[in-house]
Amino acid sequence: MVDQCGLRRGDPDYRRAVIALFAIGLASFNAIYCTQALMPALSDYFGATPAMSAWTVSAATGMLALAILPASILSERFGRGRVMVISSLLAVTVGALLPFVPTIEWLIAGRALQGLAVAGVPATAMAYLADEINGIDLPRAMGQYIAGTTLGGLLSRLIPAGVLEFESWRWGLGINMIFAGSCAILTVLLMPKQKRFTPKKLTIKSEIKAVWRHLTNPTMLGLFAIAFLLMGAFVSLYDYLGYRLADDFGFSPGLAGSVFILYLVGTFTSGWAGGAAVKAGRAKILMLGITSCLIALPLITINSPVTTIMGTAIFTGGFFIAHSIASGWVGALARKDRAEATGMYLTAYYLGSSIVGVVSGLVFHNWGWIAMIIFLAASVIAAALTGIYVARNAGRQYSKQ
C-alpha cells in the first residue's frame, strides 16, 4: 500500500533515505568538481591558461546542464532511485580513467563525459525527496541533501589539493575517485525502495507541455534565473581563487587548495536554511542568502589574504542559503511534473556554472581579479533584483509552503 503522507522524521526509512541522499550528494558533487582545485597545477603541467584549465570544470557542468532535463524525464518513467544509482556509478567509472589522460584536451573531453554520466543524480535527487518525504519535513531533508552536496564539493577540492603537496595531480584525482566510489556504493546499500512513485507514460507532447507550464510560471522562471546567476558567480569565484592566492599572496598549491574548506560554511548554512524557512518563510531566507553574497564581494577585492578568505566564507554561506531555499521552493511549487521542474532548475544552475565560469575566466585573464569581481557583482545584483520579484510575486501563497 502506498504511503500517501510520506516519510517522517523518526521513521527508519526516512533515516536511510536521508543518509543515502547525503552519500550520493558526496559522490556526485565530488565527481563534478574534482579538477577545480587542480587548475593551477594543470596550468603548470600542460602549459595551459587559467581559462583553458577552467574548461575541465566548465565542460563537466556544461554537459551536465544539457543532460539534466532528459535524465529527469527518464526518471519519470524508470524511477528516481534507479536513475540516481546508475548515474553515480557511471560517473565514478569514467572518473577512474581520468588520471591516465595524456593531454589537457583529453582531460576536458573526459570531464565532459563524466558530466554527462553524473547528470542523473542532481536531476532526480530533489524530486525523489519531494516524492518520498512528508511536506512538513521536506525543507529539512532537502537542506541535509544540499549539505551532502556541499561536503562532496569540499572534499573534491581538499583531497586533490592535499595530495598535491606530496604527489602529482594524477594521484590527487585518482585518490579522490576512490572516495567518490565508496560513497556511491554506500548509496546503493542504503537507499530505500520508492513507495510513492508512479511511472509516467512519456510522450513528446506531454513533455513539451510540462516544460512550457513551468516556463510560464513567473515564480518558477525567477527561481531558474537566480540559480543561473548565483551559481555562475559562485563557481567563478572558486575557479580563479587559487590563482589569486598563489600568484598574489604566495600560497603553495596545497595551501591554496585548502581554502575550499570554506565549503563547510555552506554545509552548515544549507542545513540551517531549511529549518529557518519553516519558521520565517522561504522569501525572507532566500533574500538573506543573496544579500550575504552581495555584502561579501567588496571584502574579496581588498588586497589581503585575510579579507579575501573572510569574504569568500560569507559568499559561500550566502550562496548555499539561497540555493537550498530556491531548489526546495521549486520542488514545492511543482505539484505536477516535478522532475521536469527540478531538471529545469538544475539546467539553469549548471549552465550558469559553465557559461559564467568561462566568461569570467576571460575577464580574469584579460583584465585581472578586480574586474572579474565587478563582473560577478553584476550577476549577484541581477539575482537580488530577481529575488525581490520572486518574493513579491509569490506572496502569501508560497512563502510558507
TrEMBL record:
The keyword Transport applies. Residues 16-394 form the Major facilitator superfamily (MFS) profile domain. Its main location: membrane. The chain crosses the membrane at residues 17-39, 51-71, 83-102, 108-130, 142-159, 171-191, 219-238, 250-273, 285-303, 309-332, 344-363, 369-391. It is found in: Cell membrane. GO terms for molecular function: transmembrane transporter activity. The keyword Secreted does not apply. It holds the Pfam family MFS_1. Belongs to the major facilitator superfamily. This is MFS transporter.
